[in-house]
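User: Hi! I have a protein structure encoded as tokens and I'd like to know what sequence might fold into it. I'm fairly new to this, so please keep things simple.
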């Protein structure tokens, strides 16, 4: 049967990120996408203008419906800021004994702005981190989680080790390795460290790379690939989608998730 991937995230009505981006990404990997919506956002390529969160009861019902009918081979968790909703997600993942969980950590934005309160961060790190096969923190998030400043390759390895031990998470991928080293991004896999070099293409102003990366990694885990293979393939996919990004909207360019169907 076809493998299925569940995305638990916010809706982006502009289609460049969130649930909409995840469904496109999962479909591009030729897998079946299910989704549970944590919040509806009013946003487009220029920014986020309003957020309407799901109630805990309704998010729980969505998850029950998915797990009891089309049980997922992997789960990607995206934007969720409210502590009660995070609690519901953690409870359901435990209740239904879900494997292959990819958590797109959204605790600190890439510009260093805190995106969730302390209580939410505590629940994410205490409840969701130990369940996750892979978390994808930015460098500023990794600094906040590990409590150390990250300026070198050694710091990256040390921070991953601290986060892994402190929160019981086995797979950690630092998304912004290029800010620190030309070796690229770093994957920490249960104590082993792998480097994934960046493609040397100029950085385009795109939207939704984090969403697509975590969703693609979840797809590869669903297909039975190793953590390293999953992250490597996800990086290749996102680079391709960013290189062929779409000239749509007035802000940053949406990715072209279906670029792999073009040739």
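Assistant: Happy to help. Inverse folding works backwards from shape to sequence: for each of the 263 positions I chose a residue that suits the local structure. Here it is:
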């Amino acid at each position: 049967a076809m493998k299925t991937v569940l995305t638990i995230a916010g809706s982006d009505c502009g289609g460049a990120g969130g649930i909409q981006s995840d469904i496109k990404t999962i479909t591009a990997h030729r897998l079946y996408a299910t989704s549970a919506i944590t919040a509806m956002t009013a946003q487009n390529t220029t920014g986020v203008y309003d957020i309407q969160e799901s109630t805990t009861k309704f998010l729980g019902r969505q998850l029950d419906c998915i797990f009891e009918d089309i049980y997922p081979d992997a789960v990607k968790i995206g934007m969720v800021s409210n502590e009660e909703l995070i609690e519901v997600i953690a409870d359901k993942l435990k209740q239904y004994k879900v494997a292959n969980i990819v958590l797109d950590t959204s605790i600190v934005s890439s510009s260093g702005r805190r995106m969730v309160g302390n209580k939410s961060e505590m629940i994410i790190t205490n409840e969701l981190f130990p369940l996750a096969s892979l978390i994808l923190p930015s460098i500023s998030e990794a600094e906040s989680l590990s409590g150390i400043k990250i300026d070198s390759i050694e710091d990256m390895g040390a921070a991953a080790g601290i986060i892994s031990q402190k929160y019981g998470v086995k797979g950690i991928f630092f998304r912004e390795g290029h800010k620190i080293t030309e070796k690229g991004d770093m994957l920490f896999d249960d104590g082993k460290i792998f480097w994934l070099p960046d493609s040397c293409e100029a950085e385009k102003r795109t939207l939704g790379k984090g969403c697509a990366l975590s969703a693609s990694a979840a797809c590869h885990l669903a297909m039975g690939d190793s953590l390293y293979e999953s992250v490597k393939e996800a990086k290749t996919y996102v680079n391709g989608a960013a290189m062929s990004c779409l000239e749509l909207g007035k802000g940053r360019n949406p990715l072209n998730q279906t670029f792999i169907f073009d040739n």
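A useful reference point when you look it over: Residues 227-243 form the longest helix (17 residues). Feel free to ask if any position seems puzzling.
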